[in-house]
Amino acid sequence: MLDPNFNPVIRVRGLHNRFGAQVVHDGLDMEVRQNEIFGVVGGSGTGKSVLLRSILGLMHPRSGSVELYGRDVESLAVADRDSLVQSYGVTFQNGALISSLTVAQNVQLPLREHYSLSEKTLDELADMNLLMVGLPPDAGAKFPSQLSGGMIKRAALARALVLEPKLLFLDEPTAGLDPISATAFDELLLYLHSQLRLTVVMITHDLDTLFQTCSRVGVIVDGHMISDTLPGMLQNTHPWIQEYFHGPRARAAEKEAAVKEARG
Amino acid sequence: MTAPLALERQRDGWRLLLSGDWSLTAMPGIEAQLQNLPALEGTLVCDWTQARAPGISPAWALLRRLAETCGTQPALDVRHTGNPPHFLELLQKLHVERHAAYSVQAPPTLERLVGKLGRWAVLQGWHGRGVIVFLGRIATVVGEAFRRPQALRVSSIARHIYETGITAIPIVSLIAFLISVIVAYLGAQQLSRFGADIFVVDLVTIAVLREMGVLLTAIIVAGRSGSAFAAEIGVMQLNEETDALRAMGMSPIELLVVPRVLALIVVLPLLTVIADAMGLAGGGLLSLINLHIPLPQFTARMRESLSHTTFWAGLVKAPVFAILIAMVGTYRGMQVRDSARELGRLTTVAVVQSIFMVILADALFAVLFVQINF
């Protein structure tokens, strides 16, 4: 079986990805440790989503290996793969809620597929997960198209959490949210991270989210990944990283994070 | 396998011993056991010492069940010991919130039913109004085109003529040909019993020219292009492309709907002529092979059977069918909101409704033509 306490949780080695002549990843290494929130950043087109899709096995990399909990994803038997897929949760950029199902049915979908439970229990568990991500109880009966952007992100998170994963992948969880909703989402993420002891991998462009939540950051530059803690990253001399973490937006986010930390 | 829970009476209350696998995987078994839990009062100690890998869902089910069995009782004092799972605090907090949130009552059944009926009626009213508004908008654009010719998007109309017309020629020809062969064959079988073989020519000619040519063409076009219109405009609605057009001061009716309607009005009569020709060819071929009527005789008999209105009685229906198909398709497309399911539903509705309307209109034409002796 997959050992949930294996350290590191994710290990990517020498990942190569290319589309035609365009090289996206050129020997990318990445390591995510137990119980951390790992932020993945990079300019547009540097292959953040491609990296995520490679880790999730949604696309096959040209070469390189992806290990989750110390097991090579490619070489897993079908049964192990199924249990692996159930051991992590994913939210996609636009929520990817199934539009023909209500929010509650969306949340119940993986439970229904993998376990035979009574309707009553399914309803209770949907309620719990919706409460956990801070959605009002009447949200369950609504269809995704009736929800606001922030609520869709929360509902997607509820669906990702329903199989009780230890590992959570978030693709741009706060993109398109107003600052108040985005901050609320950051706080929710931090709270659930501490309460449920999750390991989180998050692709984000939101500097506030990055400074508020992430314990380590991986920057994709020139097809490689440079990983470091936030303070370490601020010292990095790579020109793109300098520009990213010392631009006007970054300085504002940094200041805010410092103020928040000082307040406790 | 050990039972996941065992209830013990102790001198100062109850003790619930949780043991074995308490992860999500064991959920079905735990669920069944929880159902058997009797109503309790006093104090209850949940002992988690022997519970392996406790999961959030089973723990929540336990909390819910304990709250439920003791709903009518004087409150049960529940305590957790033996290294309870770390998320229990979160769950207990959620449980309190849940109680606050769920005190709202649903309205009674009758009230809900009346409400449903009322909403349905209002919705139908809105739909009716929507159709009239839609027709009005199209009329406005067409009217405007007389003053401002560029309101007619010629390039767009040309594209739709190509897509709905030129590319439909093979399938329309083939189907008209085959159906006509079938009719001629069946007719020949019956008529040859009376030695009236030659009347097969009359049968094919009149059936194809008056009814089948135009009706088949309209049904094929409704299936091909009516659905395409609804789907294309529907996806544009979902992508907010139509809103973008409006925001840039362009009318989606003018850009998307009217070109399709006009293109189909041009295309359907032309396709009907092709279908008529192919149908006659099919009838001629079968007469030659099956009934040994040579082609000159076929054409001569055909001329005799034709009155001067036969051909036009079919063709005059084509533009009307075209308007029906194009309007239903584009209208349903414009109705798409919110979800992929709506898109699929309305595309289906567009095809079914346009075929229904075409056949209904055909029936009305038949009555009308009899009345005016056309």
Care to describe what's here?
The complex is a heterodimer of chains A (264) and B (374). With 264 residues, chain A is an alpha/beta fold. Chain A has a domain of 67 residues. Chain A contains ten helices and ten strands. A six-stranded mixed beta sheet of chain A has the order 6-7-8-3-9-10, with helices on both faces. In chain A, strands 2-1-4-5 form a four-stranded antiparallel beta sheet, with helices on one face. In chain A, a hairpin with a 2-residue loop joins strand 9 and strand 10. Chain A is globular. Chain B is of the alpha/beta class and 374 residues long. Chain B has three domains: 97 residues, 2-Layer Sandwich (Transcription Regulator spoIIAA); 35 residues; 220 residues, no CATH class. In chain B, a hairpin with a 2-residue loop joins strand 1 and strand 2. The model of chain B has no long low-confidence stretch (mean pLDDT 88). Chains A and B meet through helix 4 of A and helix 1, helix 2 and helix 3 of B.
Keywords for this entry:
heterodimer; A: 264 residues; alpha/beta; six-stranded mixed beta sheet; four-stranded antiparallel beta sheet; B: 374 residues; Transcription Regulator spoIIAA; 13 helices; 4 strands
How are the SSEs ordered, and which strands pair?
The complex is a heterodimer of chains A (264) and B (374).
Chain A: E1 10-19, E2 22-32, E3 37-42, H1 48-55, E4 63-68, E5 71-72, H2 78-86, E6 88-91, H3 103-114, H4 119-132, H5 149-161, E7 167-171, H6 179-196, E8 199-203, H7 207-213, E9 216-221, E10 224-229, H8 230-235, H9 239-246, H10 248-263
Parallel strand pairs in A: 3-8, 3-9, 6-7, 7-8
Antiparallel strand pairs in A: 1-2, 1-4, 4-5, 9-10
Helix pairs in contact in A: 3-4, 3-5, 4-5, 6-7, 7-10
Chain B: E1 5-10, E2 13-21, H1 27-35, E3 43-52, H2 56-69, E4 77-81, H3 88-101, H4 109-147, H5 154-164, H6 169-191, H7 199-238, H8 241-247, H9 252-291, H10 295-305, H11 310-315, H12 317-335, H13 340-371
Parallel strand pairs in B: 2-3, 3-4
Antiparallel strand pairs in B: 1-2
